Amino acid sequence: MVSLSKAVFGQASYAVTPKIKATVGGRYSWDSVTRTGSNDLRCDIAVIPSFLYGALGCAGTPPVQNTPANGRQTASKFTYRLGLDWDVTPQNMLYAKFDTGYKPGGFSTDPTNPNNQFGPETVQSFEFGSKNRFFDGRLTFNADVFYQVLDGFQATLPRSLGAGTINAGKTNTYGAEIFARAALTSSTRIDISNNRLPNAPDVVLAGGIDQDIPLGHGKVTLRLDGRYSSQVYFDFVNRADTRAPAVAVGNFTIGYEQGPWRVQAFAKNFTDALVYARINRTSLITAQTWQFQAPRTLGVHCTYRF
Question: Based on the domain organization, do 194 and 162 belong to the same domain?
Answer without folding.
Answer: no
